[in-house]
């Protein structure tokens, strides 16, 4: 049932090109994004003044990554709120708020409670869910399924990438309905349809990860840094590392380092620097130089021909050239593999990490 793989997690990582393709395919017809399952009319979409995305864990980080694409293409403000916080925060929600609830299992207690709270306050609710017929899917006004197929490993991989894919598709769809596309849709659709192939390329480019894992597995802690979309991806990369390898890992917005965290950098501290967003890369490069000058060991994630980054880093993870707007789906892949091989090196129970459950059905 593991299809020849040693763990479900690795099988599910490898299934991502197919899962992302299955999520995209039914939503693109005749050169346009369609969401037949959404009963929202163009004028109802036009009434949305604010979007709140709420979820837990990796689903929350999927929201953090999707926010950039929605805001950029739709110019609607997006707030990403942890479900466990939203439910107790008396959120500012009304009929003009669209609440997007994300959950792989559709059974996460805090997410269900946040959804109920938002419905009670009059918001329209849209669920992005993997498990068909789950509680979240049933409760929301609209449900959009991620067609990832069953996910068995506790650490989500294809669940996360298909969630982000749906948010990208929704961003393009809403922007089209709002009349904000100005002939751009074709270009964006080509970029979306390239994602499954680019995930495959990310596998092919990173055959050295098991070797890197041997170097980094005994680290006391790992810092993940990045800016903008790279930061959102760093958050998920650090969570993957923590939950399956039990190493302390923390993600920081690279620009924040100087405001305190840099005090923790000492000789040989590993820093994983995400440089997948050309618009902001120069700034991250200067943070790399800062941490290196304090003795950090830098593992940079970037494009192969990105000489500036390649020449300063100690080690490298590669991604193919991608559209930064849609980068999370591809850029997370080397970090999933790194977490997997570090955990393997440390002899951890990868599919069933200690203290964790696949679906957190209690508060
Ligand atoms: O089923 P859900 O998407 O609602 O689960 C949310 C989180 O519990 C989940 O993403 C968790 O953080 C994973 N273990 C991450 O790999």
TrEMBL record:
UniProt keywords, alphabetically: Aminotransferase, Cytoplasm, Glutamine amidotransferase, Repeat, Transferase
Primary localization class, coarse: cytoplasm
Keyword Phosphoprotein (UniProt): no
EC id: 2.6.1.16
Catalytic residues (positions): 358
Compartments it resides in: Cytoplasm
Any one of the GO CC terms: cytosol
Keyword S-adenosyl-L-methionine belongs to the record: no
Domain SIS: 41-180, 212-353
Domain of life: Bacteria
Gene Ontology molecular function, alphabetical: carbohydrate derivative binding; glutamine-fructose-6-phosphate transaminase (isomerizing) activity
Gene Ontology BP term (one): protein N-linked glycosylation
Subunit structure: Homodimer.
Function in brief: Catalyzes the first step in hexosamine metabolism, converting fructose-6P into glucosamine-6P using glutamine as a nitrogen source.
Name of the protein described by the UniProt record: Glutamine--fructose-6-phosphate aminotransferase [isomerizing]
Gene, per the UniProt record: glmS
């Amino acid at each position: 049932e593991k299809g020849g793989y040693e763990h479900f997690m690795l099988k599910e990582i490898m299934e991502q090109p197919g899962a992302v393709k299955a999520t995209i395919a039914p939503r693109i017809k005749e050169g346009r994004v369609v969401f037949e399952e959404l009963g929202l009319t163009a004028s109802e979409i036009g009434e949305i003044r604010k979007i709140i995305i709420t979820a837990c864990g990796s689903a929350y980080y999927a929201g953090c990554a999707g926010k950039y694409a929605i805001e950029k293409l739709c110019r609607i403000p997006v707030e990403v709120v942890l479900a466990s916080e939203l439910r107790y925060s008396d959120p500012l929600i009304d009929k003009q708020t669209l609440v997007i609830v994300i959950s792989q299992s559709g059974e996460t207690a805090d997410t269900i409670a946040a959804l109920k709270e938002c419905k009670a306050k009059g918001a329209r609710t849209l669920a992005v869910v993997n498990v068909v017929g789950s509680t979240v899917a049933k409760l929301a006004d609209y449900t959009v399924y991620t067609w990832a197929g069953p996910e068995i490993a506790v650490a989500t991989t294809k669940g996360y990438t298909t969630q982000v894919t749906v948010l990208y598709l929704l961003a393009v769809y809403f922007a089209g309905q709002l009349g904000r596309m100005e002939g751009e849709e074709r270009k964006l659709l080509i970029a979306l349809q390239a994602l499954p192939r680019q995930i495959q390329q990310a596998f092919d480019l990173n055959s050295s990860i098991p070797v890197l894992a041997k170097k980094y597995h005994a680290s006391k802690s790992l810092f993940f840094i990045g800016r903008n979309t790279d930061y959102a991806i760093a958050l998920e990369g650090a969570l993957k590392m923590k939950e399956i390898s039990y190493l302390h890992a923390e993600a920081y917005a690279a620009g924040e380092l100087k405001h305190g965290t840099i005090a923790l950098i000492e000789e040989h501290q590993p820093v994983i620097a995400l440089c997948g967003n050309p618009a902001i890369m120069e700034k991250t490069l200067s943070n790399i130089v800062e941490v290196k000058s304090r003795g950090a060991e830098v593992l940079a994630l970037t494009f192969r021909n990105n000489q500036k980054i390649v020449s300063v880093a100690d080690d490298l993870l590669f991604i193919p050239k991608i559209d930064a707007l849609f980068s999370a789906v591809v850029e997370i892949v080397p970090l999933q593999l790194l977490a997997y091989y570090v955990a393997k090196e440390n002899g951890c129970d990868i599919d069933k990490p200690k203290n964790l459950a696949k679906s957190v059905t209690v508060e």
